[in-house]
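User: Teach me something about this protein's shape.
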Amino acid sequence: MKWRTYPQDVLPLWVAEMDVPLAAPVAGAITDAVALGDTGYPAGTAYAEALAEFAHKRWNWDGIAVERTAIVPDVMLGIVEMLKLVSAPGDPVIVNCPVYPPFYQFAGNLDRPVVEAPLGADMRIDFTVLDDVFRHASGGASRPVYLLCSPHNPTGTVHTADELTRVAHLAREHGVRVVVDEIHAPIVAAGTSFVPFLSVPGAENGLSLMSASKAWNLAGLKAALAIAGPEAAGDLARMPEEVSHGPSHLGIIAHTAALRDGGDWLDALLRGLDDNRRLLASLLSQHLPSVGYTPAQATFLAWLDCRELTPGDDPADVFLRRGRVALNSGRPFGTGGEGFVRLNLAASPDVITEAVRRMASAVN
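Assistant: First, the predicted structure itself:
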């Protein structure tokens, strides 16, 4: 999708695919399965076991109990199933905007109205706002859900243990269920630690969605895991059995291999992304100094403040028309996205350098 959506003269730095060679352990697992003709329906708990091992090694967390997991086709479809379990049509879904646009689309398609709790100016959770939104959303007979993005997309913010604990306590106080998209969890900058939501006190009734797809560039090999806290096990058990038929068996094989044997590859990727964050900051300072950019703590995405560049215009449209660079417009990310663009950093230094050169030519 990344390289095929736009004409050939457009440099694509938009959708969250990475320009990287596939990790050798993943490629080997897939080719071995194909050689065996092992292309049937998915089965077993290998994926959950591999994620539990990864969580222990990377996050020092032993909270993934295999019996409280379920395979789902991907993170967003898993979120849909979790929303069905803990809410009903008409119940509000609370999000921290600006946020990943499918949160709006999928919740809307389920007839769950989205209620925004905007991030603060520092791009972190504003707890005064969140408390107020929780209070209003929990009135009456509604069963509100807080759909938390952690790490946050598009800002790349990594929520701290203290912040996540406050989220859990506020949610319990107001009777709000928490569903967490943790798809970018393995992709953190040097010196940053990811904290799983289900690891903090008070989050025992939470539901999380995790996947190897973003960290190892496996979006085309569908598979994800729904993970329930101890108090949410009954909810997850009510998920229809046929949902587990949706993931790709080859996808599960690939994701399992990535989590078990792809650690060295991931470490090399993380070093490259750190280099690219520094490169982008330097290039913007030199060629587009009026663009605001703070290197993210996580993800391979950059959230660029272009409000001083193109007042009244969508900067993504300007960069595409005049510079032939495809970025994500901030508008679909909700309140707070106007005047911003999202740039995909998971590309070669040469591509990033050329992209910034084209962006500068579009506005200078």
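Now, about its shape. The first strand starts at residue 11 and ends at 12. Residues 156 and 193 are 13 Å apart (CA to CA). If you'd like, I can walk through any region in more detail.
User: That's plenty for now, thanks!
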